[in-house]
Amino acid sequence: MTPFARFPFLRYVICLIVGILLAPYFAGHWLGLLVSLVCLFVLYLFAFTKFSKNLTGLLGLLMVIGVGILVVDIKKEILFKNHYSDFTDAKAIHLVEIVEMVEEKANTWKAIAEVREVIKNDTIYSSHGKTLLYIDKKAERKPELGEKYWLINHLQKIEAPKNPYEFDFRRYMELQEIFDQQYVRKGDFLYAGETEHKSIYYYAMLLNRYADRAVVKSIPKKSVYGVVNAMVLGVRDELDSPLMQAYSAAGAIHVLSVSGMHVGIIYQVLIILLGFIKKRKSRWGQTTFVLVVLSLLWFYAFLTGLSSPVLRSTLMFSMVLIAEFIHKKQNTYNTVAFSAFVLLLWNPNFIFQVGFQLSYLAVLGMLFFQPLLVKLWITDVHKGFHIRILYWFWELTCVSVAAQLATFPLTVYYFHQFPLYFLLANPFVIFFSTLVLCVGLLFIVIYPVIQLFNIYFVLEYIARFLEFLTDLLNLSAKMTEKLPHSMIQFLHFSKLEVCFIFTLLVTIASLWITKSFVWIKSSVLLLVILIWIQVEEQFKISEQKQLVIHSIPKGHAISVLDGTNALIIGDSSFIENKKEIGFRLSNYFSEKGVKDTLRESLLQTNTIRVLTYQQHKLLYIPFRLNKLKVVSNVIFDWIIIGNKAIRKLEDLEGLKYKALILDGSCSEYYAQKILKQSEELGVKAEYLRYSGAKVLFGK
């Protein structure tokens, strides 16, 4: 019997994922796929009666791959009849319904809306499909979940990233079946009432917001209620950047998002607290136990607003519980794989979500690595209370290490950083976060009861205790952040390296379990390949030279790379904005192997800059000046204009240049005017908001 034989759904989910990944190569050929699946099924039935199980098994797996390919096309909402994209144009008017909680930004409200109707050429079309809205805060009213609005302006396609390796927001939204967006100004939309048919998600979000207000009202300290709401309810609006950075440095940022870990904690606590019901021999006791635990787990999912990560984990633990109840021979790996299989059939795009990948890898890592790690220290816990406490912390540490082992290749691949002291911080973080989660849930559950009976002193005591625990949790993260080099940044793994690292982890684990010499050879070979890839990459990085004129909305920046060093030239509003640099440049620096020490230089507000890079000469005019003083005999490859630095193209008279660049700080109206003048005068010009960043390679 092969190792996979005990985990049939592990085989199935792997084949389903293969099918989903192959789907783009078969897009639009669903009829041919359907015919192929029918043929495979007929062959399967024939092979089942005439040939060996190996052939039938292979045909079965091929069918699952076919299902994976087919389900992607079936689930594409844009292919459904009456999608709003079938009717919309520049003159169309859309009736939209706000279908998710509105997120508050600095100057706008961000909302996801479902298009219900499209008016085109005096005809009303019933339609469907989601779109992204940014509503200006100067608008007549803040939109709320369940409200409907008429949109006057037309929708626009979400733009592709404009800078090298920038986060692809368009792709991220496409995976959620959202392709268009609109910036909504005052007068662009009209209130059309509330929806008549409210979904279960609507009521879940109402409960979520009620609990949010209860916590904020009872706990005055922002650093406390921000963490409590993030952990218990998934509401992260009140978390400030320094606190999130501290948790990130401690390797505990996952604590601040409702996830499978939270559901796992609640599940374990419920098992401990309600275990006395299960211990009864009667079938009634076991039935009551299962129903109560399932009800409380799904209540928590409802409380979080039916968050996707919580729904995934709740489904998984529900399956574990039900399988145990019906006395089915249970294999946890199989149960986890089955939950992933069901979720991917429901929404194949889940496989591309970072949260989905990391949560399932973390669970598999804990199932596989944690028992092996715990065995490294075997002791008698009955020797004393202090030994029992130490061993309990050892088990927590093993849980953390197991999860990190399974997820760190993807963590580095996506986020380009790794917390150095996670081993030190995680046992304390897990301990205090468990207490905060449980006490926070208790607080929310009894809040309406306390209001009803007017016994607010009880609420005050619980709130103070919750504040004390949260302060300890925050302290453990902040102390870790203060340690030297707490966060290793600008790391980079390629997709090939990620695959090799995961394979290496499997071979090392197999060596650990089987003690077979063949796994030593496999591990050494993989390690040599990884080292060779890294040496080759570092050699290329050490010789790289590159200058990039970035496309920064309402700003400007140039980065110059020389080996592993980088210099950023830009306005102070961009350089001092860590969030913007992280979004626009961090992936680029990580991909290029730049170290975490960057030299920064600000553009002067009263001067222009002459930049010489290899064979290129650039003149950067970032602000409007009364008079240009430049050596006239210099021929510039590019003149870069920012912030409406010139009124008209004739202002550059006397300068010699080959092309003109308008950076992202120039408004679209201004850029169109200068581009038109350039075309009339035969001057080569480009606008970075349209063309994207300009990359110059050095020698």
Automatic annotation (TrEMBL):
This is ComEC/Rec2 family competence protein. The lineage of its organism: Bacteria, Pseudomonadati, Bacteroidota, Cytophagia, Cytophagales. The keyword Membrane applies. Residues 30-189 form the DUF4131 domain. It is found in: Cell membrane. It is a multi-pass membrane protein. Residues 231-512 form the ComEC/Rec2-related protein domain. The chain crosses the membrane at residues 9-26, 32-48, 55-72, 251-277, 284-303, 358-378, 390-416, 428-450, 496-513. It comes from Flectobacillus longus. Keywords: Cell membrane, Membrane, Transmembrane, Transmembrane helix.
